[in-house]
User: Fold these one by one.
Assistant:
Number 1:
Amino acid sequence: MFVQTVIFSCLLFSISLADPLPCKSPQQWKGSLSEYDHGDGQHNYYNVTYDAIKHRRRTVEEVRADRPGRTYYEWLFLYDENVFYELNLATRVCRKISSPGSWRSYEIPPNATFEHDLVLGVGPTALKVEEWSDRMVAPSLPETWSGTFTVDGCVPVTEVVIVREISKSFSTVFYNIDTSPLGPDDFTPPKECKSA
């Protein structure tokens, strides 16, 4: 009986030392993104409504006073319907475009590698996060994704994505994430897109 207790205790101890499993991120939320394009050196800011259940995303560029003359857009991606809408925010001209590409979730991939725990800030308001990547122990391809997620709630905090097919890389910071239920009109195309 003693040997079984020791073996069981050792097993529990080894499990507690094992890397954590990927947590499940919120499937629906509204929030903001700051995205840095490493290729062109541009920071872009967006307000996003995100629905991983029905594979939908509404992205509205934040109009910035420090970028006069720039054209800003709103995009509505309806991946399961194989369509997206692009609305020019200045002219209010809408284009309907087929094939928005592949759906990509803002979550930890199931086969991700746990990198380490991090603490952002100090004292009682510090935020605990975990860093994950698609790095393999013996990689045949270089890493193309890494992200940090809150320990409490599994909310995305940052991600870096490398898109090798187009030689681009992006760093994204997520903020002001609200996981309240989405409204019925959150993914309705703008009225200017009804005839597009």
Number 2:
Amino acid sequence: MNIFSVYALQAGGTDEAKEQFWAALQEKLEKVDESERCIIGGEMNGHVGSDNDAISRIRGGNAYGNGDEDGEKVIDLALSFDMVIGNTLFRKRNEHLIAYESGDRASQIDFLLYRRRNIRKIKNCKVIPGDHVTEQHRLVVIDLTIAVSQKQKRKLQLREGENDRILRELSHDRVDVNTWWNDAKSITLRAGKEIFGESSGKVWENKEIWWFNEEVQGKMSAKKKAKKNGKKVNKMKTEQHINSVARELRKQLPSQKNYRYLRGNEESNDQEIAEITREEVNAELEKIKNGKAPGPDDIPVEVWKALGEEGVDMFRWIDKRDTGKQYQKNAIFKEKGYIQSCENY
């Protein structure tokens, strides 16, 4: 997408200066590939008019006022690069066409030009009467439909033989769960660096953040402080509501710390429950999306998916040795929604 913001000389300027402006703009536009999208917008200080049917190819016939010589420059530019004048395509009231107003004078001298072959992507183009860019100029907006292609995420695939080598290392001396898990972390991260490499971690400065200067940061900081001060007023009341809802939820929870359920029914069971099956592990792995941030062990989920059935066996082995621990359910507010609704906990 190429966007040009322009300001043409006013009617009082010399013809030579005006020719230099339009020649310079045309030179810039010639450098843009025809396959690329292009928008030209700004104060062009000309009236294109709506009384010339010969230029209906680039103008919709819904302009305000009559055309003039400076407006012919705008039309010639649009014809040269096969563009349409966006704010003449749609039938609007005069208040949505007039871009400049000073006293008794009203005119349409601010325009937005877009590639004609993409004309179907233009959904609307008009002037917003209540918003002023400057004291006399109103805001001209254009609504476009632009398809954004998502970047394909890299799929993790091990080379032939790498899978067996890693599994042999992970299968060595499975005695203690915690010790094995720490060893598995080291083995997996080392293998990942050897096979797939490691990014430099370099942070590119001034890329898409050039506008985030000290002035913007100061205003955002002031806004956050004001919002924080406003939240403090209702903090005590919010905590009281949360505590009251939590008490009600605790009453509904079982009193036993080690309360467990049998698979397939809702009867309490103080004995051992059935082992986690392969189908359950595979189903949970399929639910987890690729490209997500790993947990505290820094092992991405793609690793476990790549390990296949051997990885499933490791999960089941961990589950068998992670029994006997006691758990307790607690109500935690999600920090959104109505605080007195149990669904938000």
Number 3:
Amino acid sequence: MAVKLIKEHRLSNHRITVPNVTTNTNWDPPQSPWYKVNIDGVVFSSLQATSVGVVVRDHARQVVAAMSKKLWVGLGPLEVEAKAIEEAIDFAWDIGLQDVVFECDSKVLRGALTRANTPSVAIVNVISSCLLRLQNFKSVKLSHVRRQRNKLAHILVQYAKSLENFVTWIEDNPIPIQSALAQDIMTFASY
């Protein structure tokens, strides 16, 4: 009973910040000492599989870590996006991040995670799990972005189609995103 009360207290008192959504189509770095985790998920119906792409970058726009993962489960589009966020939360925790901006291209999921709307029955358990896990971080922000600003995660989610399981990169630029990353950095430098 006491454990349940503690969990309920933590869940009701943990603050998640929701930054304003901008119309800029370029990726914006987080402020130091924060890290930004971009997330995407996709369904490969023909393979009866889904995949997750995660890119972690710092204030200097450098890739700190990345993951491309295939999940051999049949999920719908909303469920795979929720699963992608859950995987990204675990990945961010596993690599030791504390101040994190989680950025995805699903307004529905951002709304569910910030309690702005009630999650669909199909994802309510995953959302509950995510909310509990987010409490472990020192600070969390949740942001919605347009797909154009989530390009690197989208490339990694597509790359997962060729995988049997998953691959991670730590302090290394994944080959599948090197060209897009270079373009992003050059675009930023021209401002």
